[in-house]
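Practice record 12: protein with flavin-adenine dinucleotide.
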Amino acid sequence: MIESYDVVVIGGGPGGYVAAIRCAQLGLNTACIDEWKNSQGKASLGGTCLNVGCIPSKALLESSENYERVAHKYSEHGIKVDGLSVDIPTMISRKDKIVMAFTSGIAMLFKKNKVSSIHGKATLVKNKNGNEPWKVNINNDNKDETIEARHIIIATGSTPRQLSLAAVDNELILDNEGALALAEVPKRLGIIGAGVIGLEMASVWRRLGSEVTILEALPEFLSVADEQVAKEAQKVFTKQLGINIFLGIQLTEIKTIKKTITVKYQDPQAKEQTLEVDKLIVSIGRVPNTADLGAENVGLKIDDGGRIEVDSYCRTNLQNVYAVGDVVRGPMLAHKASEEGVAVAELIAKVAEQQISELTKVNLDTIPWVIYTSPEIAWVGKTEKELKAAGRKYKSGQFPFMANGRARALGETSGFVKVLADANTDRILGVHMIGPYVSEMISEAVVAMEFSASSEDIARIVHAHPSLSEALHEAALGVDGRSLHI
Ligand code: FAD
Ligand code: NAI
């Protein structure tokens, strides 16, 4: 007999597992199908984020930053350490333990919430009697099983974009998976793509001693961020951290001879340049995972970028079929995936039937971005460039961490906070930060924007002293030209 569910979720990453838990909490009989296997060949929930993304990268960023602090920053505190060394296998195994704790934690959460966890590859199959209930084939080690469901949530995520010039082998040419599992510090590390992964991985391995060179196709550095933030970041990464960053390049050839990778590229003046490295990370973006999903079997619409087409409620063109996370439009971020998962679960359970547009729609305009380099970079809302392009009149207030007491005590004084507010209404339109722990500070700006706050609101709220959050307070005061400490 075919097992039948209220909801079948395809994909066990932060979009899928969160959707499954929320569906189960709302009383829906739910199954989650996921095909991820870890390096030991064992099923491992949590998708990209927990296995080879957010969590392991942050573990290595923290370890390498600790090393950097001892090596270069503690001496100004009068703390001297002789004979400093780093044991990479221990660092990697700490990261693996953190990953294991979280991935097995999801399995426990599934048990607790009575979500049926099914390991295998899911494919949508055509139902002879029309489409509903939806039928899903699950293939696990060449064994097939079919289940059915009234509702389907697709959360199949994304995979690294491939470079046509060189295939990733995760020995010499690495994607994020290989970059997070190196057994030793490469002497010379090349990175293709100065995006989020490129910058985070460059930080990890540069701090541990690699000579790092990043080759970026675009002529501008970090063009997704506010221009001024990007400029400050580029200065710190190149001058203080010593990462070589070449912009506006075009790759022409990548060759591996023995253990050396030779990368040939044209610089912006169309001159041929050569880079030799021991490892090469390819981080040129990610592509939505829709191949082999069986979209064509059921007529599921996929857009030109390979994403599943959805409306603002994550509804696809098919009745009762939803899609969330990296596989749909919007930023490829774990928190965005999870919030969409919750919204869809609540839409299915009709919790918010009366206020469907208020509660079951994720506001893509207030999704925070964080890049966990040092200094950290975080933002929410519009950049100055976007506001100018839209012809929106705005005021701006800015405050440097150099003038913040807590940042001085920490010895982390690079960067600033900038608040952009509507010139007429004072409503906050964007907040941009570069500096210590801005990953934590950005939430205040997100809350403010979600509640349609003005810069005056933040300026009138009491912020603890001394705290990094005072920089946001001062930047908000600055919108009206009344910062107190600069
Ligand atoms: P995924 O996490 O990709 O999960 C999809 C799951 O579906 C996978 O387990 C996959 O195996 C499974 N699957 C796919 N197809 C099928 C199928 N047909 N049948 C069964 N299962 C299937 N985001 C942040 O917000 N913060 C960060 O700090 C951050 N750091 C990152 C660092 C790195 C190195 C990388 C690569 C990404 C990072 N991200 C970060 C992005 C984040 O990982 C993704 O946005 C997030 O994982 C997307 O969640 P998802 O559920 O949509 O997809
Ligand atoms: P990305 O989109 O951030 O950056 C890719 C970069 O590669 C771009 O700057 C692009 O111009 C460049 N590029 C593309 N093709 C190229 C080529 N042929 N030669 C040279 N440069 C080229 O993608 P990335 O870094 O792979 O990360 C993927 C996504 O994962 C991010 O966009 C983000 O959504 C997510 N992520 C989020 C993190 C966070 O929230 N802290 C951390 C890491 C990843």
